[in-house]
Amino acid sequence: MREFSVPATAAVAPEENLTDMVWANAERFGNTVSFRRHVDGTWVDVTARDFAAQVMAVAKGLIAAGLEHGDRIGLVSKTRYEWSLIDYAIWAAGGITVPIYETSSADQMDWILSDSAAKAVFVETNGHRKTLDSVIDKLSELQHVWQIEGSAGAIDELTALGKDVSDEAVHERRREVKADETATLVYTSGTTGRPKGCTLTHRNLLSEVRSALVLFPEILAAGNSLLIFLPLAHILARALAISCIYSRATVGHTADVKDLVADLGTFRPTFVVAVPRVFEKVYNGAKQKAHAAGKGKIFDAAEATAVEYSQSLDSGGPGIALRLKHALFDRLVFGKLRAALGGRCIAAVSGGAPLGDRLAHFFRGVGIPVFEGYGLTETSAAACVTAHGASKVGTVGRPVPGTAVRIEEDGEILIKGDIVFSGYWNNPEATKESLEDGWFHTGDIGVLDDEGFLTITGRKKEIIVTAGGKNVSPAQLEDRIRAHPLVSQCMVVGDKQPFIGALVTIDPEFFPAWKEQHGKAASAEVADLIDDADLVAEIQAVVDEANKSVSKAEAIRKFRVLPIDFTEAGGEMTPSLKLRRSVVATTYSADIDAIYAK
Question: Taking every annotated instance into account, which residue ranges of this chain make up the domain AMP-dependent synthetase/ligase (predicted)?
Answer without folding.
Answer: 24-425
